[in-house]
Amino acid sequence: METEPRIVAFLCNWCSYAGADLAGTSRISYPPNVRPIRVMCSGRVDPAFVLNALEMGADGVLVTGCHPGDCHYVSGNLKAEKRMKSTGELLRRLGLRPERLRLEWVSTSEGARFAQIVTDFTKILGEVEPNPLSAGNNAVAILNAEQTVTEALARTNVRYCLECGKCSGSCPISKVKDSYSPRRIVERFLLGFRDRMLSSPDLWNCLTCLTCTERCPSDVRYPEFVKACRRVASKEQMEELCAHKGVTTALSRILTNPSLKQERMDWLPEGAGTSPKGELLYFVGCLPYFDVIFEDFNLKLLNIARSVVGILNKAGIRPVVLDDERCCGHDLLWTGDVENFERLAKMNVAEIRKAGAKRVVTACPECYRTLKKDYAETVSNLDFEVVHISELLSELIDDGKIEYDIDLQRKVVYQDPCRLGRHMNVYEPPRKVIAEIPGIELVEMGRNRENAVCCGVNAWLSCDKYSKAVQLDRLAEAKATGADLLVTACPKCQIHWKCVMSEKLPVRPEDVTIEMRDLTVLAAEAMHSA
Amino acid sequence: MKTDSSVLVIGGGIAGMQASLDLASRGLKVYLVERSPSIGGRMAQLDKTFPTMDCSICIVAPKMIDCLRHPNISLLTYCEVKAVSRSAADFVVQILRKPRFVNETKCTGCGICAQYCPVEIPNEFDMGLGIRKAVYIPLPQAVPLKYTIDEEHCLKCGLCQRVCGTGAVDLKQEPETVTLNVGAIILATGFELFDVRSISEYGYGRHLNVLISLEFERLLSASGPTGGHLLRLSDGRIPRSVAFIQCVGSRSLKGGVPFCSTACCMYATKEAILIREHEPECEVTIFYNELRVFGKGYQDFVNKAKDHWGVKYVRGLPGEIVEDPGTGDLTLWYEDTTENVTKSTKADIVVLCPALVPRATSKDLSALLGLELDEYGFFKAKDRLFAPVDTNVPGIFACGYCQSPKDIPESVGQASAAASRAAEVIALSADKEVH
């Protein structure tokens, strides 16, 4: 029997589940709309659980835990409180109504209270429109694994592998996990162990940083091969390796829903100049969402977006900023969810066309690559040019449209993000944007440009001890240059590094801790009123 | 019309010299054209040769002298072929004699000019590791032993002119054009080195202790910049470990050339043995993908390097070289593909074995002579099986590396073959005059 609205309830094992039990044994009646799931602690409930429940069609999510002070793990419920608050904000920005998520404290003796909460919640949800997301909306095609792998093998030159092992000597993961080797993975595919390989974690370890592709003498495009195989690989392994329980990919999938009315424009500062239509469009990307998901890191990621608009305004440009911009779909594409990627691509291209933009600027290398390269392969006749903010800024500097007027006095080291560098060959514009700032000394790590090392995580996969080792190694390299500021052009580098810096480290913190800044934010800092 | 019974040989390396000597000994007139101021070519730069470990200059210098002394050979050094036309069965060749600014007849090769010359620039013969003056001979055993003023770097200070005892320095010398009538042409233009800077993960050009093999050969050579002492360039220290990397730019479908240079596995082994001879404490590792040692006695040579000399062979090409900015020491990351484990190792010096590629000037020559090049820039053989030294133009032959990848013994063999074919062509034409 279908009951509307549907509520998924996460009940803590120690208080709330017993409370719900008491409601039952006491024969208290309450609406049958709730599907209880027992968790050990309300602190166990990840934002991803909430998004997943909503994505799969639940109208509301109820999280219940012990009253503050009663938590069997001391502070799990307080953590849940903080988390659910930001998850509520995430729902608001997504246009999903924050009231669909409710956090309540229910103790063992409060059977009646549990029943009352469910009754109230059902009533509230009954009064709002049904969840716009419904399962099946973002269905994924079932592909023939054998055929997909065979095509991928041919398309990515895998058969030309000379087994020289240059890839393993290049791969950041191989260096810390000596059993991992792109060469041996393709070898096993060629030897016919396809099923075994498709269900192994190996396919999800690849950072797709393109270092191996850059160096392979046989032009084997391993990350492309991995990308193709991920479409048919067992997603169980991926879920196990997914950072943050897959909240970001869930977010991307949710954004494929055409009926969402996002509220993502709050960040625009008062007086910022944007236009509804125009030549130049600023594609913001996921910053409004990451701002909430990673608020603990205090990275002020939306300052990147504010800096972009600030600098463009200073140069006399009022960019178009879309209020219904969707995720670019990068992470979906690289985790094998091509159907949902294509849905996002089509929606974004339609919006960009509607705004009449001839040029799209992004401050995120992933958006940049995705829009410029992958959209062009997905949507025919892409009629706008895609530029990275560093390219646009160096153009504006050349034309004398912007000028730095603040002396920053910093020693800066620049990290080439994989998507900007090896994927798109943009190496010099970001350096120019930095080096032109008065008082800045720009130094290089030994491994720079096409030899730069990945920040350790891509598409939120494989955030494991090997990733951490890659990150610490790279941060130590940055630190060893003597620079006091690490500048990157990718918000994700900052997130992943901040994450590792906030952890208990196996090395001396002073060897790997360094202040970070986004390229655009740094540029804005060096300009009055930007 | 009289057909000329002389032959033009382009390139004064080992192949060109061998072809010239063969033809001259048959009584044919040979014009040996060399672009640089001395003949000798690549082989003169080598310290030793494989698999016999002969001193390279010791066997090539007598050949150079033979070419100079042979009454049937005219050496045209510091000359370039500028135009070729046909007249009946002959070739009419215009040769540009670049000004040496030193009168060849007057110069005795005493070298006092170079002693006084104030300009010091990197020496090409030592791959830029040593220095030479603006007035110079490229190598101590230069043939002809005549000094040349490098116009690009000369300050025109006139010091050399003042000190020269025979008044040989002539700063007003002009380029000359020589016209020759020849019955056949042999190409022996050799190879140049692939620019390994493009394989940036190995850091050549950035890391001081990453060398290419020909530079390393000069470091090992007694006539080289260190007088044959094996030293590190960054700090002058004797290296404790040297690593060789094979196939840098060769056998690459991307960013290099797809063919195998054929000589690298062997010369790396030779250089490895030389290191062990020089410094028995120094560890030597050769990173290779496949050992392509197919000539007579070659496998024995490698076995001996392993068993007798203790050279370590690792199957796997390193992915990258990381330099320690403080010490200049190098870390190589590689997968030992026989053990399936990714590892790193340290080395004081890394020697890259670059792809050997046909010279860029082959293109100009092919245009001048109407020759076909293959897709990689080698002179195309008329028939790869049955006319391997013939080109598409009758009367023009090619030998040595400019024709296809090969090592010294093969180049010498092919040069003799080309000489025979040229002699045959001339003998078959009527009405000849033998010098």
What does this structure look like?
The complex is a heterodimer of chains A (530) and B (435). Chain A is of the alpha/beta class and 530 residues long. Chain A has helices at residues 16-25, 47-55, 76-94, 111-127, 145-155, 166-170, 172-176, 182-190, 194-198, 202-205, 211-215, 222-230, 235-241, 247-254, 287-293, 302-314, 330-334, 338-354, 365-378, 389-398, 428-435, 465-480, 491-501, 509-512, 519-525; strands spanning 7-12, 34-39, 60-65, 101-105, 280-283, 359-362, 385-388, 410-415, 440-443, 485-488, 515-518. A four-stranded parallel beta sheet of chain A has the order 2-1-3-4, sandwiched between helices. Chain A has a four-stranded parallel beta sheet with strand order 9-8-10-11. Chain B contains ten helices and 24 strands. Chain B has helices spanning 14-25, 41-45, 56-69, 112-116, 159-163, 213-220, 264-278, 298-307, 362-369, 408-428, and strands spanning 6-10, 29-34, 48-49, 54-55, 73-77, 79-87, 90-97, 120-122, 131-133, 135-136, 148-149, 176-182, 184-187, 191-193, 210-212, 241-248, 283-288, 312-315, 320-323, 330-336, 341-347, 349-354, 356-358, 396-398. In chain B, the strands form eight sheets. Chain B has a five-stranded parallel beta sheet with strand order 5-2-1-13-24. In chain B, strands 15-22-16-17-18 form a five-stranded parallel beta sheet. Chain B is globular, with a radius of gyration of 23 Å. The A-B interface holds A 157, 160, 162-171, 174-175, 178-181, 183-184, 211-212, 214-219, 446-447, 449-451, 480 and B 199-201, 247, 251-256, 289, 315-320, 322-323, 325, 332-337, 340-344.
